[in-house]
Write a structure and sequence with these properties.
The structure holds three protein chains of three kinds. By secondary structure, chain A is an alpha/beta fold. Chain A is built from twelve helices and 15 strands. Chain A has two domains: 175 residues, Rossmann fold (3-Layer(aba) Sandwich); 188 residues, 3-Layer(aba) Sandwich (Rossmann fold). Classes of the chains: A alpha/beta, B mainly alpha, C mainly alpha.
Chain lengths: 378, 377, 309
């Protein structure tokens, strides 16, 4: 896509409703080639989706809701959704209710805590219904075959964020608000920092952990603290970046997004964001079911599998940043590795000795912060 | 002083007073008053809620139908309701027992969380092995002790330092959740579950199963048994009598020589133990481990249930089933009527307010008044 | 442009700014509740009023593009809740503690119910006053971005403190709180005074909620409040029912809440869960220290249901 195309997309992004209907229309276009299978399906396929929080949280839940909306655009597909379902027996009952009362043949669980024991038990109890969870937890030796998972390597999106941020900062101090110091989050912080340092070796990333996935007051306080200490770009890995992006925008500071598009919240300072494009997986499931094919147990990938996308650039992205980011996306689509050794951690020790592919299991055990990150895990 | 909420439940009338027929007549009047006023309150709440629905363009009739269907209409719905009612019975008892003494304790959520956490910790040294009855006993004992201790502290603070138990129990509740989060995020975290911090699983052998033929766990049976036991304790034992006397008038109770401090602390400890028991079942019958999902509001719903049941341990069971049914139907209402899940919260809140307001109607209707009203004792 | 690193000065500066931000809602809610309790009534429903006020302010600000209108509306919504509390408590045999809890649940439920469509849209925020432009350091300028509501809160605290002591209205309120019988014989309706004062308290709580959604953290969502309404009630006891005491206690709380992130920016990452527990522990400790079983809580209005033995 050229810059003009990006510019067009950016205009559309300004209005959320427009965006949603457009994505629905886009989905119809994309699915055009697969319409015959769905259109000829004998009965409607009902898909149930369960969210742990509000659907329109500008974060994790919304990323799935956007994909659900895309599913609605497919012919013969009926989507039932339920929000605010806690990770207790309530989710088991909700999913069962969708199967028994709504006739769902595919259940998508979007929150981590839904998997064990609820979805595992349900998959055993309902062998004719397909269950898929937003994780890579499925283990064939422990769980039945009608269960599985889908996962987007958002750290690739954060690498692109980092590249764009590195070229958009003037103070060379970039702030990062992160939830907890677990492997998944540490990896995104590191990928982000590697992106920043690749284009701007003088920049540093200032890190603050809030302690949990969704704590609006702490996130606001962390953002304020980062801005007070001189950061002029703020990135984050929390469930809903809404507060971080809004607070940054209030102070005239640039921001990078995560999970879904927060561009509309920061018309002056938004750079780009690491979005999970779940609709790729969702639509693959719908089409497979309609065609009578067996669903893949595990779907995962990044830009190469169209499971990760970057939010169209906002006003905060400089010309140089856009160019470099687009190049980084192209590189990742082609499979170029992010972690090219030797890489040191922020205390000087070498933690990455050689080059690791983007899906190498070694990278999933991240326990360190790379050089350039000011912050610590403990 | 807080109006004694237990006085308007029909009381057993002494035999050596009016004749048995008179006594029974008075009791019938009391029950009639209770049922009529409660029905009026529920009706009033239903009217206000229906108006709200109409303003939003939803149909109250459809709402009611879905409420029935999602809560009680099918065997699946009924089981859904029962499984939600079980923890509510426990946490409601945690409010009802101290209420006999006139104490308003709203810290059941924290006691539940700590109870569940303690139970999960008790299972840790066994690594999934060990003799099952022994492990289960250890888990239950830990849960009861942890919950009992936590609310017992609230009682002690009230007795020894005069600290208002409502505020302190709520603060202790938040504190308990923070403490659990600290341990579950840190020292006791299961490394195999990074995204969601939780303790190590207790092991499949130690899980509590379902009542045969249903998908409802045994916690429901234990809860009903506990509610019955609490009723007996409060209505048929000296302890209960002393407690209710203290609730009516502390100074008089002290003057009588009753051990007011001991009564307060014991009642609070019992309350905490009930909530802790709920935590045990959440871990042993549902989750299999202790994590942040323990704190999903069962404690706060229990407050509602207890007040609606007017702090009567037996009445708590049907009220918990009713409230459980409303929340069970919430999902169906969300999906079919496109109303937010907060709708059931609003319904519960309106019913709560109406029922509390209806307290003022007791004794107002001449038809229910008798010449000698035992509620004056 | 190179940044000026001010080293360890970041911490006290961040704490100063954080204290002001975090304390503002506490200030409003506690001063309002202080007034209510002075008249002899306890309103535990303020948590619900706070959350509803936050939602109402956000919604009105979104529709009218005026955050100050939103704040005003939130105040009136809070006053309505307070008046409802007062009206219900007039009825005999009604337990004001129980009503408070019920209104807390109802207020929160209504806020979530009506607030659903507002989680996503963005409403105009209350603008802060830039008081630090005399400094060249960006950190100082950021720290001195103070919302005018903070100063309004201080002014109200001082005003109420003065009014309670020096005006006839203040005397009536205090009389209601200390002796209902005396008030009645003076010719005033105890219940009406309490209703008005509870409504005023509700107004303050609503404005406190508006600050949460329109200034800091400046967003409407269902996780906005973490018990601030209840903590404010405990603050009143700690402040010995003095509006100026409430001011001091709120600032203390604000500072305590701001330590954690401030320390992280200079590399000290202690257990955040401990900092999470700090406000509750603090409140509990103050509560225990201020209470006594032997005599009435010092300064407590005698008619207050929680202080009667």
């Amino acid at each position: 896509m050229t810059n003009d195309d990006w510019g067009n997309e950016m205009e559309k992004q300004m209005n959320r409703r427009k965006f949603l209907t457009l994505s629905g229309a886009g989905a119809m276009g994309l699915a055009a080639g697969m319409l015959p299978q769905l259109a000829s399906a004998k009965e409607k396929l009902t898909i149930g989706i369960v969210y742990v929080g509000a659907r329109d949280d500008f974060g994790w839940n919304q990323s799935h809701a956007v994909a659900a909306q895309a599913l609605r655009g497919l012919p013969n597909v009926n989507v039932v959704e339920e929000e605010n379902v806690p990770e207790t027996i309530a989710v088991r009952k909700t999913m069962e209710s969708m199967i028994q009362l709504d006739g769902a043949s595919l259940i998508l669980g979007t929150s981590f805590g839904y998997y064990d024991p609820y979805m595992v038990d349900l998959a055993r109890a309902y062998p004719d219904v397909q269950f898929r969870h937003a994780s890579k937890l499925w283990d064939p030796s422990k769980a039945p075959n009608n269960l599985g998972g889908f996962f987007a390597y958002r750290d690739q999106g954060h690498y692109v964020n980092g590249v764009a941020a590195g070229l958009s900062t003037k103070t060379n101090k970039i702030g990062y608000v992160a939830a907890k110091p677990i492997g998944l989050v540490l990896r995104t912080i590191n990928s982000f920092t590697l992106g920043v340092r690749k284009v701007n070796p003088n920049a540093t990333v200032q890190l603050i952990f809030t302690g949990d996935w969704s704590l609006p007051v702490r996130e606001a306080e962390a953002t304020n603290a980062l801005i007070s200490s001189g950061c002029d770009v703020i990135a984050c890995h929390v469930d809903s970046p809404k507060v971080v992006v809004q607070t940054a925008e209030q102070h005239g500071v640039k921001s990078c997004g995560h999970n879904t598009s927060q561009a509309v919240l920061a018309p002056k300072g938004f750079i780009t964001g690491a979005e999970a494009k779940w609709e790729t997986a969702y639509k693959a499931y719908a089409i497979d079911i309609a065609a009578g094919r067996k669903l893949p147990n595990l779907i995962f990938g990044g830009y190469d599998k169209d499971l990760v996308a970057s939010t169209p650039f906002g006003a905060g992205a400089t010309e140089g940043a856009r160019k470099a980011a687009l190049q980084a996306i192209a590189d990742l689509k082609a499979g170029k590795p992010v972690y090219v050794g030797p890489i040191r951690n922020n205390t000087g020790k070498i933690v990455i000795d050689k080059t690791y592919g983007n899906y190498d299991p070694f990278l999933e055990q991240t326990t360190y912060l790379v050089e350039g990150v000011h912050g610590s895990i403990a | 002083m807080a109006g004694d909420p237990t006085q308007t439940i029909p009381q057993p009338v002494t035999a050596d007073g009016p004749s048995d027929r008179d006594a029974r007549f008075v009791q019938i009047k009391q029950w009639a008053e209770l049922l009529t006023i409660s029905a009026l309150a529920v009706l009033g709440a239903a009217v206000v809620f229906s108006l709200l629905l109409l303003v939003l363009g939803a149909s109250p009739g459809e709402f009611l139908a879905l409420l029935w269907r999602g809560g009680f209409g099918t065997w699946f719905s009924l089981q859904n309701t029962l499984v939600r009612a079980a923890p509510l019975i426990f946490t409601a008892l945690a409010v009802a027992i101290p209420a006999q003494l006139g104490l308003v304790i709203i810290g059941g959520e924290g006691a539940l969380v700590l109870g569940g956490f303690a139970a999960a910790c008790a299972a840790l040294p066994f690594h999934g092995g060990g003799s099952v009855p022994f492990v289960m006993a250890a888990m239950i004992a830990s849960a009861l002790a942890a919950g009992g201790l936590w609310i017992g502290i609230v009682g002690a603070l009230r007795h020894f330092r005069g600290v208002n138990e409502t505020i302190s129990s709520l603060l202790m509740s938040y504190l308990a959740i923070a403490v659990m989060n600290y341990f579950v995020d840190g020292p006791l975290r299961d490394p195999a579950s990074p995204i969601k911090s939780s303790t190590l699983p207790i092991g499949d052998a130690n899980m509590v199963g379902n009542i045969p033929g249903t998908s409802v766990h045994w916690g429901l049976v234990v809860a009903i048994a506990l509610a019955s036991a609490s009723w007996v304790l409060m209505r048929r034992t000296t302890f209960g009598f002393a407690a209710r006397l203290t609730g009516g008038n502390v100074r008089a109770a002290r003057a009588q020589g009753l051990p007011v401090g001991g009564l307060i602390i014991t009642a609070c400890a019992l309350a905490g133990a009930c909530a802790g028991f709920a935590g045990y079942f959440e871990v042993a019958a549902v989750q299999g481990r202790a994590n942040a999902s323990l704190a999903t509001g069962y404690g706060f719903s229990g407050i509602l249930v207890s007040f609606l049941a007017r702090h009567n341990a037996l009445a708590i069971v049907p009220v918990a089933i009713l409230v459980g049914g409303i929340s069970a139907a919430g999902g169906l209402i969300q999906r079919r009527l496109d109303l937010p899940d907060a709708t059931v919260l609003v319904l519960q809140g309106i019913v709560f307010v109406f029922l509390l307001v209806s307290e003022t109607l007791y004794g107002r209707f001449a038809v229910f008044r008798s010449k000698r009203s035992p509620s004056d004792i | 442009m190179a940044t000026t690193d001010i080293g360890l000065w970041t911490v006290p500066l961040a704490m100063f700014a954080g204290a002001i931000r975090v304390s503002t809602p506490f200030l409003f809610v506690s001063v309002g509740e202080c007034l209510t309790e002075k008249s002899g009534r306890i309103n535990l429903g303020l948590e619900g009023t706070l959350v509803f006020g936050a939602m109402a302010a956000y919604a009105v600000s979104f529709h009218t593009h005026s955050p100050w209108l939103g704040t005003l509306f939130a105040g009136f919504a809070g006053a309505a809740f307070g008046a409802l509390h007062g009206a219900i408590c007039r009825l005999p045999k009604v337990n004001d503690v129980a009503i408070g809890i019920a209104l807390m649940l109802l207020g929160t439920g209504l806020a979530f119910f009506f607030g659903k469509p507002y989680i996503e849209p963005e409403a105009p925020h209350l603008s802060s006053m830039a008081l630090g432009n005399w400094s060249s350091l960006p950190q100082v300028r950021a720290a001195l971005q103070i919302n005018p509501l903070f100063f309004i809160g201080i002014a109200l605290a001082v005003l109420f403190a003065w009014a309670l002591r020096r005006t006839r209205w203040g005397l009536i309120v205090r009389m209601c709180g200390d002796s209902a019988a005396a008030t009645r014989s003076a010719g005033y309706s105890v219940d009406s005074v309490r209703l008005v004062v509870t409504a005023v308290g509700g107004f303050m709580a609503g404005v406190g909620g508006a600050f949460l959604s329109l200034s800091y953290p400046g967003s409407w969502s269902e996780g906005l409040s973490s018990g601030q309404g209840m903590m404010a009630v405990a603050l009143v006891i700690f402040a010995r029912w003095s509006p100026l005491g409430c001011l001091g206690a709120s600032l203390l709380f604000g500072a305590a809440g701001a330590i954690g992130p401030a320390l992280q920016t200079v590399g000290m990452t202690a257990g955040y869960d401990i900092f999470n527990a700090a406000p509750y522990v603090l409140t509990l400790v103050f509560l225990i220290a201020s209470s006594s079983s032997r005599r009435n809580l010092k300064g407590a209005p005698s008619e207050l249901s929680i202080s009667r033995r």
